[in-house]
UniProtKB/TrEMBL annotation, chain A:
It holds the Pfam family LbH_EIF2B. It is found in: Cytoplasm, Cytosol. Keywords: Cytoplasm, Initiation factor, Protein biosynthesis. This is Translation initiation factor eIF2B subunit gamma. Its main location: cytoplasm. Residues 350-431 form the EIF2B subunit epsilon/gamma LbH domain.
UniProtKB/TrEMBL annotation, chain B:
It is found in: Cytoplasm, Cytosol. Residues 1-125, 162-275 are annotated as: Disordered. Its main location: cytoplasm. Keywords: Cytoplasm, Initiation factor, Protein biosynthesis. Belongs to the eIF-2B alpha/beta/delta subunits family. Residues 22-56, 81-97, 196-233 have a biased composition (Low complexity). Pfam families: IF-2B. The lineage of its organism: Eukaryota, Viridiplantae, Streptophyta, Embryophyta, Tracheophyta. Residues 1-15, 174-195, 248-275 have a biased composition (Basic and acidic residues). It comes from the Eukaryota. It comes from Camelina sativa. PANTHER family: TRANSLATION INITIATION FACTOR EIF-2B, TRANSLATION INITIATION FACTOR EIF-2B SUBUNIT DELTA. This is Translation initiation factor eIF2B subunit delta. The gene is LOC104724232. The keyword Cytoplasm applies. InterPro entries: IF-2B-related, IF_2B-like_C, NagB/RpiA_transferase-like.
Amino acid sequence: MDFQVVILAGGFSSNLVPLVSKEVPKALLPVANRPVLSYVLDLLESNNLKDLIVVVEGEDAALKVGGWISSACVDRLHVEVAAVAENIGTAGALRAIAHHLTAKDILIVSGDIVSDIPPGAVAATHRRHDAVVTVMLCAQPVSGPSESGGSSGKDKTKKPACEDIVGLDSWKQFLLYIAKGTEIKKDTRVNKSILCAAGKMELRSDLMDSHIYAFKRSVLQEVLDQKPAFRSLKQDVLPYLVRTQLRSDVSSDQNNVEENGNGKDNMQNNEVVLSQILSNASLPSFHQVYESGLDSRKTHKCCVYIADESKIFVRLNSIQAFMDVNRDVIGDANHLSGYSFSAHHNIVHPSAELGSKTTVGPHCMLGEGSQVGDKCSVKRSVIGRHCRIGSNVKIVNSVVMDHATIGDGCSIQGSVICSNAQLQERATLRDCQVEAGYIVCAGGEHKGETFARR
Amino acid sequence: MESRRNPRAVVDPKVRQVGFFTSSQPDSSSTQQQQQQTDPIPASASSPPVSTISPSGNSLSPVMIPPPRLNSSDTFPLRGAAAGASSAVSPSSFSYSNRRDFPDGSTTASPGRHSRGSFVKSSTPVASSLPGIGMDSMAAAKSSSVPASGLTTVSVVTMPPGLAEKASGMEVQSDQKKNPKSLKEKTTKAERRAIQEAQRAAKAAAKADGGKVPPGTSASVASTSVKVAKPAKPSTQKNEVSVAAGVTEKKGGPSEKDRKKDAPHPRMQYDDESRVVKAKRRAVVKQTEAKNRVELFRHLPQYEHGTQLPDLETKFFQLDPMHPAVYKVGLQYLSGDISGGNARCIAMLQAFQEVVKDYSTPPEKNLNRDMTAKISSYVSFLIECRPLSISMGNAIRFVKNRIAKLPITLSESEAKAALQSDIERFINDKIIGADMVIVKHAVTKIRDGDVLLTYGSPTAVEMILLHAHELKKKFRVLVVDSRPKLEGQLLLRRLIKRGISCTYTHINAISYIMHEVTKVFLGASSVLSNGTVYSRVGTACVAMVASAFRVPVLVCCEAYKFHERVQLDSICSNELGDPNAISKVHGREDINYLDGLTNNANLQFLNLMYDATPSDYISMIITDYGMVPPTSVPVIVREYQKEHLLV
C-alpha cells in the first residue's frame, strides 16, 4: 500500500527511572513478562505490516533492542533497527533516518503503546482525504490503580489529567488546533482564519494524541529540512502543520508541476476540465472553499482518526502508566497479552512452584521457573521468571521482574521490583520502585520511595 | 430489417455519422428527416410516443435483455488456485525446501548471516576484520541509502516471495545452528571451518569488550565500513541492523481467486436469501444488511451505512492484492467523497491507469488474462463499495475489451503504454470531448432572455451554462435542489462566482416556478434504449411538471452512458442510499424528531438514489452525436455502442 512504518522506540527514558537501566531500555520493559515493544510489533504484524524500521536512541539501546527483536521475530517480520543519538527528540530521530524513507506515506508509531486499534484505519483516513498528516486520537485512559484492588484508600492518582486539547471541525474529520494540556496556562491563541474557514470548532479535552501518525513523506521531509529547530513531532511539527494548513508552503502536490509542464493546449485544457469535474463532484472541505475564495492560496489537510472508545490504548510513559499497563494486560485487556488464561483468570506457568497454602488470585501472572514459598498471597500482580519468593509474602498490585529475590515475610503493595533486585526479610514496601540489582535491607518499612544506586 | 442492414455495412460509418450531427443550426426536425432515411425505427418518432415503445420492444424485449456482464469472473481459475496454494504453505517449510531447490540460495543467505554477526559486535574494532564487514561495505556500495549492514534483507523485498523467504530465513544465526545439514550441502568443509572460526572469534571479541567500548569507536567503525556517513553530523550515524525477515504468507482477505469468482452480480436480487449469504461470505467490505427495508425494494442491496467504512478502513493493510489507487477510489465511493456519474467514472479509470502503470506480469502468466482477472477483482471490490453506475459498466467493458484485444506479440511495456493511452483516450474523447460537443450543441438552444431550469448538479449542464455566459448570452438560471444531498448548492456557488444570476429553490416549489421557465436542462446517469432517462431521483418529477407546462426538456448525456437495457420503472434497478441521510439533518439537533425511531419495526426509510423518466416527458436528448429525440436512442446504441466501446 506504499506505506513505510517507523517505530520510535525511544532509549532510556528519564521518566521511567529507575525502571529503565543500561540493561533494559524503555522498549524492553516487561509488560506481563513480554517487552512492551512486542505489543507494537504484534499489532503491526496482525495488520500485515511486516516491513518495519525501529528507531532507537543510543547505540547500546539499539544493540539491546536489535538483539531482542532478532530472537523474537525470526521468520515473521522484516525489521531494521536504526540507532540515533540520544536526546535529539522524535523529529531529530526522523531527520536522521529521513533518507531511508522512500514510500509515499509514512506511518509513525510510538514504540511504547499497548493497543488494539488497527493502524490501517489511520492510513485509510489519510489516503481518503489525501492529507498531509493524519493523527489518531483516542479517549483518555483511566489512570490510577483499579478501585477493586481495595488498597487505594486515597484517590491521589485521580488527577484531572488533561493531556491534550484538540480542536476539530464539525464533521470530526479535520484537525484545527492542537496543544498540550500542560502547556496551556490561562489563555491560548486560535488561528482566526482557520476558525473562519471552518465555521465551527469543537474543542475537546477528552481526547488524547495517541502518537500514531501518518505523514506524507515529501511534506515531512520538507518540514524537517526547513525547520532544523524542530525537535519533537508532537510539539513542533504537528502544531506547525496544523497552524499553517490554510497558508501552506509545503508542496503537497508535486505532480501539478509535471502536468502543466508538458503537452499541447488541448491536452492541458482537458486536464483542467478533468480536475474540475472531479473537484466539483466531491463535497468540498472547508479547505477547498477557502482556496476557491482566495486565489493562489494553497492549503493542506490535517486529518484525525478518532478511535472507537471500546478499543484499548495505553502508552507506557510514566511509572504510573507502567503499573496501569501491567494491570490492564492481565486484567481487562487480556486478549492483548496473547496468553491463555486459566479458569481462575490467572496464568501460572507449569514450571512455577507454589508452596503450601499459597494463593494466587485472579488477574495474576507467575512466570516460568519462579518459586513461591508457603502461605504467600499474590493478588493482581505480575511476577517474572525465576523469581524466588520466600514464605509469608504478600504481593498486591505490584510488578516483580525476572530473577528477583524476595525474603520471608515481605509485604509489597503497588510497587515495582526490577530484575535481580533483592528484598531481605520482612521488608514492607508500598508504592515503591526498586532498581535492578538493588538490595533492600531487612525489616525496613518504606512508603513511596525510589531505591536506586547513586 | 436484415436486408436493410446488409448494404449499410458497406457505407462508411463516418459518412453516416454526419447525418446525425446537427450542424451549426441544429434543428430537430431535420435530424428526424435524416433518420427517416436511414432507419425505420426513429421514423415513428413523429407519431405519438406511446407507439414508439412498441417498435423498440419488438427488437429488444425488455424482459429478455440480459443485464450487463461486467466481470468475466470465472474464467481463470488456474491462477487463483496457484495463489491460494502458495499462501497455504507455511513459511518454515518454504525456506528449507527452497534451499535445496535453488543452489545459489545459500550464497545469498550467507552475507545476511555475516552481517548479522557483525551487528553483534559492531562496537568492537575487531569486527572490521571479519568477512561480514566486507560484505557490508559491498552491500553499502550497492545501495548508498542504507549505510550499515542488513542490506541483504532490503533486497529480500524485491525478490519473489519464495526466494525472499529463503534468504531471510537464513539470516538468523540461530537458524544456522538449527539446520547445519543444509549448510553442509552447499559449502565445502574448509569453508565451513572458516565460517565457524570467524564466528567464534567474533563471539569472543564481543564478550571481551561488549558494552564497554565508548561510542566513538563504534562510530569510527561504522564510518570505515560505510561510505555515506555524514561528516557534519556524526550523531546521525546509525547501524541499521536487519534482524530477521520472513514473510508469513497469510493473506488477510479472501484470496484473489475467490474474489474474482464472486464479483457480486451487478444486478443480484438481494431478496434471494441464499445468494445474499453467499455473496456476503466473499465480500471484502463487511456488509450488515439494514433491518427495516421497504418491501418493494427488498431486491436492492442496503447496508447499515455506519459500519462499512470503519471496517474497510481497519483492513487497509490486509487487503494485499488491492492496488492503493483502487482502494482509495473505493473508500471515496463508500464515504461519498466522489459522486456523480462522470466523476466516478473518471476516478475509476484513473485508478485503473495507475494499476496498469504498476503492473508487471507474474511469471508464467499471460498479460491479457492476468490483467483482466486483476481488473475484475478490483471491479468487484468497487461494487462492494458502491453499486456501479451504468456509465462505469460501459467504461469497464471498454477497458477489458482493450486488454483482450492487445496483440500477444506486444512486449509488456508496450502493452502497458498502449493500455494507458487507450484509457486516457477514453477519458478525453468519450467523457470530456463529448461534453465539449454537447456544450457546442446545447448553447445554440439558449437565447437571450431565457430562464433555464436545472436540477441537481449535472456536469454537462454546468459547462453549458458557463459557456453560454462566456458568449454573453443574457439568461437566468433556476437551480432546483433536493434533500439530502443538496448538490445544487455547490452548483449555485460556482455559477454565482461567475456572475450568472440565479434563483435557488427546492423541488417542493417546482410547480410554482415552472411558469417562468423557458427551458429545462437536465443531466442523466444513463439513457436506456427505450428513451427512458435514468437519473438522479427527482428528475422525473421535474420533467413531468415541465412537460405539463409545455416547457421543453433537454437532457444532456454523453453517449458512453447509453445502454441497451430497457427499463420501464425505477423499481427493478435502483440504488438505495443511506437511510440516516433523510432521517437526520446534520448539525441541527433541534429538528431531529426521528431520533430513537430508526430501529422501530413500524418505520422504514426509503432513500432512493435514482429514478426513471419516461421518454414522453423528454423533448430532446443532447449527446455527442448531436441532438436527438429520445426515440433515436436505440439507433445510437445499436450503431455506435460497439464502435465506441471497441474504439
